[in-house]
Structures are given as structure tokens and as C-alpha cells.
Automatic annotation (TrEMBL):
InterPro entries: GreA/GreB_C_sf (IPR036953), Rnk_N (IPR029462), Tscrpt_elong_fac_GreA/B_C (IPR001437), Tscrpt_elong_fac_GreA/B_fam (IPR023459). Residues 53-127 form the Transcription elongation factor GreA/GreB C-terminal domain. This is Regulator of nucleoside diphosphate kinase. The keyword Chaperone does not apply. Residues 4-47 form the Regulator of nucleoside diphosphate kinase N-terminal domain. PANTHER family: REGULATOR OF NUCLEOSIDE DIPHOSPHATE KINASE (PTHR30437:SF5), TRANSCRIPTION ELONGATION FACTOR GREA (PTHR30437). The gene is rnk. Keywords: Kinase, Transferase. GO terms for molecular function: DNA binding; kinase activity; RNA polymerase binding. It comes from the Bacteria.
Length: 142
């Protein structure tokens, strides 16, 4: 099954490319996840901020996900690694779940590997975050 490209703002794309290419990031992140995220970035459909559909998950979007198998519903904010705090529902874009949801649409079913197989979630809701509204939002630096 061929997946459609993820959709990103040009600003998010530039920041994420820099993050994925960073020596600091590569020293502390799973190389397979970085490779997969890099591949998604190279296939991404890029749009200007004012052209971004409201239902797309961007950096700092608040998202509600429903586990397809259990029905459990969870809400997170997708953030850069330095702002990640799972106890406060801030999900790093460099986590398996964060990388998986980036650029997808409300209604999409998304999966990522877990120890026991695959976790599959449906995107129930997407609320634009501060990065979507303010391009000068925090960007990781080397």
C-alpha cells in the first residue's frame, strides 16, 4: 500500500531537516527513526503557512488520537525534543509516535512499531499550535 506524502509548512520542513541532520540529534536518537523521518521529509508536500489545511498535524499541534484496537483516547501536543514532556502530554517529534503522526490529517489511521507489534491510532482531532501560527517558534539549535 502506497502512502501519500505528509504535508508540512515550509518553515517546519526547514527546521525538521536541520534537526534530523544535526550531529547532536544523531548522537542521541535512534538512527532508524532518523532515517525514516528523513525519508518522509524528502517526500513531503510543502505548503506556505497560510495554505496549510487546518486538519493537518504540524509542529505544536494539539492532537487527539484514538487507539484503533483498544478505543483509548489520548491528547498530546507535538513538540521539538527540548520541549518534550510525556507527563504533560508533550510528544517529541523524534519519538516513534511523534515522527509517525507528523504531517498526517484528521481521520488518518497511523501506525508505528512497538515492542509487541504495531500501535495503530486514528487522528480524531487536530488543533493548530503556536508553530503553525508563529513561524518564529522555538527551533532547535546545534
Amino acid at each position: 500500500m502506497k502512502r501519500r506524502p505528509i504535508t508540512l509548512t515550509i518553515d517546519d520542513y526547514a527546521r525538521l531537516r536541520a534537526l534530523v541532520s544535526s550531529k547532536v540529534t544523531s548522537a542521541f536518537s535512534d538512527p532508524t527513526l532518523l532515517r525514516d523521518l528523513y525519508q518522509e521529509l524528502t517526500r513531503a508536500r510543502l505548503v506556505e503557512l497560510d495554505e496549510m489545511p487546518e486538519e493537518v498535524i504540524t509542529m505544536n499541534s494539539r492532537i487527539t488520537l484514538r487507539d484503533v484496537q483498544t478505543g483509548r483516547v489520548e491528547t498530546y501536543t507535538l513538540v521539538y525534543p527540548q520541549r518534550a514532556d510525556i507527563a504533560n502530554r508533550r510528544l517529541s517529534v523524534l519519538s516513534p509516535a511523534g515522527a509517525a503522526v507528523l504531517g498526517h490529517y484528521r481521520g488518518d489511521d497511523i501506525r508505528w512499531p512497538i515492542a509487541s507489534g504495531w500501535r495503530i491510532v486514528r487522528v480524531e482531532q487536530v488543533e493548530a499550535g503556536t508553530a503553525a501560527l508563529a513561524p518564529s517558534a522555538v527551533c532547535p539549535k546545534e
